[in-house]
Amino acid sequence: MVSYPAKLNLAQTPTPLHKLERLSTKINGPRIWIKRDDLTGCLTSGNKVRKLEFLLAEAVANGCDTLITSGGVQSNHCRAVAVLGAQLGLKVHLLLRSDIDPAPVGNLLLDQLVGATISHYSQREFKQLDALFTQWQDHYQQQGAKPYSIPTGGSNGTGVWGYIAAAEELKADFACENISPSTLIHATGSGGTQAGLIVGCELNNMSVRVEGFAVCDNVAYFERKVRDDLRQWQQQFAPQMDIEGMQINTNDHYVGPNYGVAGPEVFATVKELAALEGVILDPVYTGKAFHGMLEEIRQGHYDRDSDIVFVHTGGLFGLFAQQDGLNY
C-alpha cells in the first residue's frame, strides 16, 4: 500500500482508458489503448494538474499566497498553474520564454484571462532561470507576500507523486480490461511524468516498460533529469527504496526541428487520429510522441506486444496557436 502525502482534489480522475479500435485495425500491429489524461479537467486539461494536486497542497500547507512558475509561451503547465491559482485565490506569476512578441492565443490567452501576471523573457535571458526565480521570490517577500516556486513542468520530487497515483489508476484499468500491456508510452519534456510512471509501476508491481518519447533534448538529458527527480522523491519520501536500478527508457528520434516545432508528419498524424478516433493531439507533446509510436510500430519494434498503452497528457490549447500547420 502506497502512503501518499497531502494532496488537493483538483483533477477529474480516474480518467478513462479507451481502445483505439479503428487505428489498431488500420496499422495492423498491437492493440493501441489511450489513457485519456487530456480529460483531467476543462481548463486544467492534461498531465500537469496531477502533479499540481501535490505541489499546491504543499504551497497551501505552508501558507503561501503567490505561485511563481516558468515555461514556454504556450506552456500547458503554466496555464494549469494560472487557472488553479485563480480557483484557489492565489496570485500567479508566470515567467514565459519567447523570442518574439507572442499573440494572445491558446494557452497564453487563458493565462491572461484568469489574471496571471506574466513576464516574457528571450531564450538568452531564460538561460538564467534560477536567477529569475530568485529575483521574483525576493520581490514578493519584500512586499510581504509568501511565494512558492514551482519548477518548469511541475517536475520535482513532490511532483513525481502525480504519476505514481496515475500508475495505480492504470493498474486498475488493466485489470478491468483484462489486459497486460508490455509497453506504456508517453511524451516527455520536463521528465516528471516519466519519473512518476517509472516509480509508480515499480511500487504497484506492474511489469510494464515505461518509454518516454522526447519532445526536446536527448536521451542523456532525460537520463540525468529523470534520475534527479527520482532521487529527490526518494530523499523526501522513501529513503529506504532503491531507485538506482530503475530503468529510464527514452526515445529521442522524433524530437523534430526543436521544442515546440513540429514537422508536417506530426500534423498529419494529428489530423489522422482526429478523423479516425475523434481524439485530438497537440503538435508540441502528444503529436510528436504518438507519431513516433506509430513509426516504431510500422518498423516492427513492437511486434512482440499484444497491447500498447499511450498516455494522452493533454495540450489541446497549444494546437490553437499552431493551427496553420494543419493546412486548412
Describe this structure in a few short sentences.
With 328 residues, the chain is an alpha/beta fold.
Description:
α2 packs across α7 and α3 runs parallel beside α4. The mean pLDDT is 96. It contains 12 helices and 10 strands. The chain folds into 2 domains: 201 residues, 3-Layer(aba) Sandwich (Rossmann fold), CATH 3.40.50; 107 residues, Rossmann fold, CATH 3.40.50.1100. The relative contact order is 0.16. α9 links the parallel β8 and β9. It is of the alpha/beta class and 328 residues long. The strands form 2 sheets. It has a 6-stranded mixed sheet, sandwiched between helices.
What is the element layout, followed by pairings?
Blueprint: E1 17-19, H1 21-27, E2 31-36, H2 48-61, E3 66-72, H3 76-88, E4 91-97, H4 106-113, E5 117-121, H5 123-126, H6 129-142, E6 147-150, H7 161-177, E7 183-188, H8 192-203, E8 209-214, H9 219-237, E9 249-251, H10 264-277, H11 286-298, E10 307-312, H12 316-320
Properties at a glance:
12 helices, single chain, 43% helix, 2 domains, globular, Rossmann fold, 16% strand, 6-stranded mixed sheet, 4-stranded parallel sheet, 328 residues
The radius of gyration over CA amounts to 19 Å
Task: Determine the strand fraction and express it as a percent band.
Answer: 15-25%
Provide the spatial order of strands within the biggest beta sheet. Answer: 1-2-10-7-8-9
Series of secondary-structure elements, N-terminal to C-terminal = EHEHEHEHEHHEHEHEHEHHEH
What is the number of helices?
12
User: Could you report the average pLDDT, rounded to the nearest whole number?
Assistant: 96
For the sheet with most strands, the description reads:
6 strands, mixed
Q: State the secondary-structure class.
A: alpha/beta
Question: Using DSSP, what is the number of strands?
Answer: 10
Q: Could you please say which CATH topology of the largest domain applies here?
A: Rossmann fold
Q: Cα distance, first to last residue?
A: 50 Å
- Note the overall shape: globular
> What is the domain total for the residues?
2
State the CATH architecture of the largest domain: 3-Layer(aba) Sandwich
Unreliable spans are none
Classify the helix fraction into a percent range.
Answer: 40-55%
Determine and state the CATH class of the largest domain. Answer: Alpha Beta
